[in-house]
Amino acid sequence: MEEEKGRAVDAVVVGLDTEFNYRKLCIANVLLQRHPNALLIATNEDAYDLVGADARHLPGNGALIKAIEHASQREAINVGKPSSILAKLLMEEHGIVDTARVLMVGDRLDTDVRFGRDGGMMTALVLTGCTTVGQLKGFMGTEEEPLPHIIFPHMGMMAT
After folding, report:
1. Long-range contacts: 25-28, Cβ < 8 Å, 24+?
2. Within 10 A of 78 (CB to CB), how many other CB atoms are there?
3. pLDDT at 3 > cutoff 60
4. What is the residue range of 127's domain?
5. This prediction's pTM
6. For the segment 112-132, what is each residue's pLDDT rounded down to a tens digit?
7. Which residue, of 78, 97, 131, is where some domain finishes?
């Protein structure tokens, strides 16, 4: 991660790093200070990931991004779900004109379903990941966590 002398840094890109530490936080912060025009880019802003049979919440990339944002006083550009940047890129890359004919399948309301909904796609939620039946009971959806069009208990239920 050492900067070459005399070379500008165009962006600091942050993805999930399970070995993130104070030293790496300092490096990102100093690079952003030295290069005020550099972009701070987040590959995603997931608050947590579920791990283990007991579904423990472990910090996701969003926790790293928030630490760097706070230290650098800069705001990251999220290019992962639910980013409209990503949706536009995917539609252009694959020549998709009618987004309503696209089905976004995922296991999170805040990233996967929101990405699909914001992008004008149909959405399907599978209950084998982050979102559980218990969380959905009585939940009416919000702008940040919209409800999907379809819910499947697991991926196998999608087959016809």
Report:
1. 25/67, 25/68, 25/71, 27/1, 28/68, 28/71, 28/72
2. 20
3. no
4. 85-158
5. 0.79
6. 999 999 999 999 999 988 898
7. 78
